[in-house]
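The material for today's practical consists of a large collection of protein records. A record pairs a protein's sequence with a compact description of its fold. Instead of coordinates, the fold is spelled out as a row of discrete tokens. We will come back to this pairing of sequence and fold again and again. Here is such a record, shown just as it appears in the course material.
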Amino acid sequence: MIRLGAYWNRIEPSPGRFDPSELDRQIEAAERAGKQIILAVGALKTFSYPEFYVPPHHLERPLPEGTLVSPATQPALLDAASEFVTRVVERYKDRPGIVAWQVEHEAVDPLGLEHSWRLATSFVEREIEAVRRADPTRPIMLNGFLPASLPGRFAQWWQTRDQGDSLALAGRLADLVGIDYYPRYALAAFGGKALYFDGARNSWHRRRRQQVLAEARERSRQILVSEGQAEPWEAVTIPPNPVGKAAYSCPPEQIIHTYNAWLDESRDDAPLYAYLFWGAEYWILRDQSRDPRYLQAFARILAES
């Protein structure tokens, strides 16, 4: 299974132009390879940095920082977003490889470190309604970031306390609850040293993980790991490619450990729907740099799971 993204500003690069040719190519290639596809239809937020893909002609001025973007404050943007997701779904709903639609990305959380505005739940609900009208047969996937540290959990709660975070929203509205999971990441760098959050083996974090799973199962939601950390998350945007060593935030063996940790949580009566690895292009970079261990770790998982 793979995830593909319908990036709004690439498919609609100018007013009145709709060019999905690159997405057509990707879907056709995936289907030829026998893959199942979760298609992220956007519209505002889609996975992959910078995660914000609104065409400039749909946004006269930047979204206000520190505010909730709602149907009342941005009615024209909502109408355009709903029209876009409807058009994408109607184009691809007859493709056999597509098994689910993803609506927004970490839908109601702030946009990384760049922006403090957030989508209101009412905005996302309207987008979900548009997708369900266009295709009532496939499940909707919403995803959210699961903090691996207590400070990270507190920060997430503080930012989203007025309406709940994206995982909470997914538990209420989605058919598939996607969990984005990065257990070890750099907080800051100081010269050649870095400060890390590491929740990979934290007992508090394991309880929190089990709580999220239990809540989803109580609502009869299917659960998947929509992003399992499989590349470094250092204090820079582009993962480093050190010669002769691996970045501490995700050495190759960490890929296997993270996968096994979630496999341990999967139950016969409520198994994980899927586990998607985030980092394949990094594995290729490392392989080209004469370090095949990341690709080997993934191959070992495929062989033994």
Q: What stands out?
A: The CA atoms of residues 213 and 267 lie 11 Å apart. Residues 75-92 form the longest helix (18 residues). The chain has a mean pLDDT of 93. Residues 2-278 form a domain with the TIM Barrel fold (CATH 3.20.20.80).
